[in-house]
Specification:
Strand order of the largest sheet: 3-2-1-4-5-6-7
Number of strands: 13
Radius of gyration: 25 Å
Helix content: 40-55%
Largest sheet: 7 strands, parallel
Structural class: alpha/beta
CATH topology of the largest domain: Rossmann fold
Strand content: 5-15%
Mean pLDDT: 94
CATH superfamily of the largest domain: CDP-glycerol glycerophosphotransferase, C-terminal domain
Shape: globular
Number of domains: 2
Number of helices: 19
CATH class of the largest domain: Alpha Beta
Length: about 525
């Protein structure tokens, strides 16, 4: 069987490394494709795809064409508008930051129409969404993408994340359906279905971690239940096998914390969730010390939000270290070992809203958060945060104040095993829904294999009024493309001017009066 896996960039490889390896181990031909410049060194510092190429003769990587013609610009604007409309639904009533992010690329005239008049009503927005979907179906497929897929003729086209704003990967879904190639969305992470764009499909298969995410795919994206397979969280399979290889006292000495007391691990969040996390951590540390908690503290920066920590001095708060100082993505054996030991040797874990809280539950550590006003929009204002609070009675201890948090933390420091059952319940529901000892990777592979055995009839969805809509869409797309090219030229010119200015600047020589 031949499987073509199209990813937005290489940062997603680590989420599916075990899946790619197992597909190759089972004798399938796997091709991994990114767009030009699709290497994400921050999230993929060890270039996992190159390692797989060297390990498996059946594995290859390639570069995909990206649609940049007038039709592509028009189609993307339509999808951006549909993505925006979802954030006007009741489910996102308390999600202003998500809604604001979705508005960034929406045409001003559409924003105005959805804020007043008929299109500000539920029925008006539903009519607008139906119209936009019809316009989307009127866009023809892209020849270069058709040729790319036709030349490979995979048994399965798998994609991730697909749900990015504007969904550029949706062009591959359209072309695949026109060629009769089965398509699969492999959902990469627990927040993808709620805080990104829509699934612009339809796709033939959606793999999700758990039953909560299955309900999201049905309710928020309109996916038919029979097309969804619950697999478990394959990115975390390896954590269930890890055991400490460095003693706690040796690890504490390695990172610069005293080994004669417990330490608390603070796991930082992404830039979108916590753009300014340092002031909050300072306040939190001050509250700890004022309450008489003298435990060590390990602050672990998020790899995509580490700049704010580079020159921070927290020595006034006692035994506190920021490590690794520049953040680190756990993408290979060494970085994963450092990350694992950070969690397993800690007495408790605290974070705002981050995947590290889930990984801490797998390791078996109590997890805490504070419902801070400065993070309200990215905690209670996001749907996926509620999974941490409620999935199978919840994982995190969510405090309304520092004083409540201190009380929760003191209880755990007195009895580090107090939340063992709580963590297990959460993991059984959210990470390993087929059983705590049943890994997810084989479930993902089996779902892709089953899809590859299906025979689909080529279909190219359109509408009876496509010949009427296409001239208008093409005209709009040409205008958008011209504007984009002009904007790119302006940026290039500005960059060149700055380079010239930097080269011509010379330090002023001091003239002696003698």
């Amino acid at each position: 069987m031949k499987i073509l896996f199209v990813m937005r960039h290489s940062g997603y490889v680590r989420n599916f490394e075990s899946t790619l390896r197992m597909l190759c181990d089972r004798g399938h031909n796997v091709e991994l494709a990114f767009q030009i410049g699709g290497t994400h060194w921050l999230l993929d510092p060890t270039d996992v795809a190159s390692q797989l190429t060297e390990t498996y003769p059946r594995f290859s990587r390639s570069v995909i064409p990206v649609r940049d013609d007038a039709w592509g610009y028009a189609a993307r604007e339509v999808r951006v508008a549909l993505d925006y409309l979802r954030y006007l639904a009741p489910a996102y009533r308390n999600a202003p930051k998500l809604r604001s992010r979705a508005e960034r690329e929406v045409p001003d005239r559409l924003l105005e129409r959805t804020r007043r008049g008929f299109f500000s009503t539920t029925s008006g927005r539903a009519l607008l969404a139906r119209t936009l979907r019809m316009l989307s179906r009127a866009v023809p497929t892209e020849t270069r993408i058709d040729v790319f897929l036709e030349a490979r003729r995979p048994d399965v086209l798998a994609l991730t994340p697909l749900i990015e704003p504007g969904a550029p990967q949706a062009e591959y879904v359209r072309s695949a359906r026109a060629l009769g190639i089965p398509t699969a969305l492999c959902v990469a992470s627990w927040d993808n279905l709620t805080n990104k764009g829509l699934i612009h499909g339809p796709v033939d298969l959606v793999t999700v971690w758990n039953h909560l995410m299955k309900e999201e795919a049905i309710a928020l994206h309109g996916v038919q239940p029979e097309r969804i397979v619950v697999t478990g969280a394959q990115p975390f399979d390896h954590w269930f096998e890890w055991r400490p290889t460095v003693a706690r006292n040796d690890f504490c000495r390695q990172i610069g914390l005293p080994d004669d007391r417990p330490y608390i691990l603070y796991v930082c969040s992404s830039r979108f969730i916590a753009p300014e996390e340092v002031p909050f951590v300072r306040s939190w540390l001050q509250q700890l010390r004022q309450a008489g908690i003298d435990a060590g503290v390990l602050v672990r920066p998020h790899p995509q939000n580490a700049d704010q920590w580079r020159h921070v001095d927290l020595s006034e708060y006692g035994p506190v270290v920021v490590w690794p100082a520049a953040g680190a993505t756990p993408s290979n054996a060494e970085s994963r070992a450092d990350y694992f030991h950070s969690i397993v040797h800690s007495a408790a874990v605290i974070g705002i809203n981050t995947t590290a809280e889930i990984e801490s539950a797998i390791v078996g550590r109590s997890v805490f958060t504070i419902l801070a006003p400065e993070f309200q929009a990215t905690q209670e204002g996001t749907l996926h945060f509620e999974h941490l609070r409620n999935a199978n009675d919840g994982l995190v201890h969510a405090a309304q104040s520092f004083s409540e948090h201190i009380g929760q933390l003191e209880r755990t420091l007195r009895n580090p095993q107090v939340d063992d059952a709580r963590c297990r319940r959460f993991v059984e529901a959210f990470v390993r829904p087929h059983g705590i000892d049943v890994p997810a990777t084989p479930k993902v592979v089996e779902a892709l294999e089953a899809l590859g055995k299906r025979q689909l009839t080529p279909s190219q969805p359109s509408s009876w009024w496509a010949p009427i809509a296409r001239p208008l869409l093409l005209q709009r797309g040409e205008r958008l493309r011209r504007n984009a090219l002009m904007a790119a030229e302006r940026k290039t010119l500005q960059r060149r001017r700055k380079d010239v200015a930097a080269r011509t600047e010379r330090p002023q020589k001091r003239v002696s009066s003698r």
